[in-house]
Amino acid sequence: MDAASVLREVFGFSSFRGSQGEIVERTIAGEDSVVLMPTGGGKSLCYQLPSIVRPGVGVVVSPLIALMHDQVEALRLLGVKAAYWNSTSSDEELFRVRQALRAGELDLLYVAPERLLTPSFVSTLEDLEIALFAIDEAHCVSAWGHDFRPEYLRIAEITSRFPGVPRIALTATADAITRREIHQRLGLTEAREFVTSFDRPNIRYVVEEKNDVRAQLLRFLAQGDDGDSFKGSTGIVYCQSRKRTEEFAELLRDNGYDAVAYHAGMHGDERTAMQQRFRREDGVVVCATIAFGMGIDKPDVRFVAHVDLPKSLEGYYQETGRAGRDGEPSVAWMAYGLADVVAQASFISGGGASAEQQRVEQMKLDAMLGYAEAATCRRRVLLAYFGEESGDCGNCDTCLSPPELYDATVDTQKALSAVIRTGQRFGAGHIIDVLRGKRTAKIESWNHADLPTFGVGAELSDQEWRSVIRQLVARGLLSPDPSRMGALTVTERARPVLEGHETVSLRRLAASPARVKRSRSAAPGGAPADLTDDDRALFELLRTERRAVADADGVPPYVVFPDRTLWELVAAKPQTREALLAVNGIGPVKADKYGERFLALLAND
After folding, report:
1. Range of lowest pLDDT (127-131, 226-230, 393-397, 444-448)
2. d(CA 589, CA 76)
3. Could you tell me whether strands 203-209 and 330-336 are parallel, antiparallel, or unpaired per DSSP bridges?
4. Residue-wise over 216-230: b if at least 16 C-beta within 10 A, else e?
5. Strands, E, within 313-370: which ranges?
6. Which of 80, 250, 364, 559 could form an SS bridge with 312, CB 3.0 to 4.6 Å?
7. Residue among 24, 39, 2 at smallest CA distance from 197
8. Three-state secondary structure call for residue 466
9. Which pTM value belongs to this model?
10. Could you give the CA distance from residue 553 to residue 548 in angstroms, rounded to a whole number?
């Protein structure tokens, strides 16, 4: 079959999205490509479809075991002959995979990079016809990236042994430096690069100053999306430490959420069970360290919350990108404070990395701070980091509730002067006490009440001064020294401000976090805009049936049909197999497998 026929007959789609078609045709023709496409943009199809069209087996290299399992399950439901070979495979399973490979019975084989590099696996490949090599999560080649995997540096050794076999490297997160590394380190210097927009317009970005983060998280979840609570919705809460994942999971359970913790310190079976609950059940909230979510293609995650500051915009983009893969409205919420900055700076300085790597990591943290303290459209800041220009999005907190800016030159000079006069050896709390004129024991012991800056900032509250200092750190005028418990130091960039040659505009601290609402052109979950009560009831009936089918097949419900397909069934109400095939996401295999059950429900409506 040609590409268009496979797209329709196997995957159940009538047309390609964006640059998918061009990438697919190029790969089928035997050419190399580097593909940068946002999460949920359809990267998998770019190598799955050519693997079916081209003779031989497509070898997909991925570090994400959960992704392998999900994609193999989904492909098998479509009638595609797929398998995986990783650390979870039993000896019996591997025996069956080897037999299928030798018999030429597989279209796709998913393999971990560690397995690809073993001599025995390479020997197996040398006896096969290879359709293509797909290197997923290609940003893992970057030693300075957010998810470096040293095994990726040797992938080119293996793929170079198979001249004439097309290679396609794919990622959703790569800045300009990482893109160059992908081309160089994977031996793809002549490959054409496809860069799709990094924008995820369905995600609303919200950032709050951290004060009582537990109360803030509960308030965010209670407000939900346009005032509807997130109770019953699927979500992820990212935490910096294992202990915090446990604490926040307990907090959410105490407040009526179906929440679980996930971190590397848990027993392997327990982690697997938590991950399976998240994949196969509705409304589960996982409180996790950043390792969670990699490769999980669950489409209906309605929110991603960060209760601690990520270390880079690449990591933040990837983590928030796990929300709204179905294209429906979702929220990325984050609370952060100055203590987060000190903690991340401490990780950088204490990690044992080279001076050059520390410099790069500090630059990435500075970019993350710039995003968190942005007074303009957050989406513009985020996309600019990946080299993409955009206008104001109208769907982030700074667009929906624009912050008030004020001339903060005098406040800045007061803060800088207080840091200098106290010897640049104290953290933000002590500096604020000096500015506000508080006679604490610490101030008395250091005789700081005698300083000219003592009490010069009494007109601002503690919170307002914290906001000022945090913004000055984000602008690079102040720098916290992690080796001295976050002691603030004045940078060279502050000199023009101190000398009166530069003015400073800062955001004025809002009295309380603004409710950010926006207009919605469609009902949630891909529902038609003119949704009726009968439509909702039919959707729930179809969803119940989908869950029963999924449980019987041992797969997540979205692998059977995503919500968007269910809503199309509600809208079209097909009564025949031919009409069923006109619905996006339903090809002949799924129509034969599930058609009668769903048509019966639609006929009785």
Report:
1. 226-230
2. 10
3. parallel
4. bbbebbebbbeeeeb
5. 330-336
6. 364
7. 39
8. helix
9. 0.81
10. 9
Supply the DSSP symbol for 287: E
Separation of alpha carbons 447 and 439, rounded Å? 10
Query: Distance between CA atoms of 3 and 11, rounded to whole angstroms?
Result: 11
> Whole-angstrom Cα distance, residue 465 to residue 242?
31
- Average pLDDT value for residue range 100-121: 94
Triad 364, 366, 371: Cα angle to 5°: 95
Residues 6+ apart with CB under 8 A from 64: 136, 137, 294, 295
* pLDDT confidence of residue 519: 38
Which residue has 């009638």 as its token pair? 79
Count other C-beta atoms under 10 Å from residue 165's C-beta: 20
Q: What is the DSSP string of 210-230?
A: -SSHHHHHHHHHHHTBTTB--
| 119 against 531, higher pLDDT | 119
- The model's pLDDT over 310-369, given as tens digits with 9 standing for 90+, comes to 989 988 998 998 999 888 899 999 999 988 988 888 888 877 778 888 888 888 888 999
Question: Residue 520: pLDDT band by 50, 70, 90 thresholds?
Answer: very low
State which H helix or E strand residue 45 sits in: helix 43-53
Sign of CA dihedral 18, 19, 25, 27: negative
Q: Is the pLDDT of residue 15 over 60?
A: yes
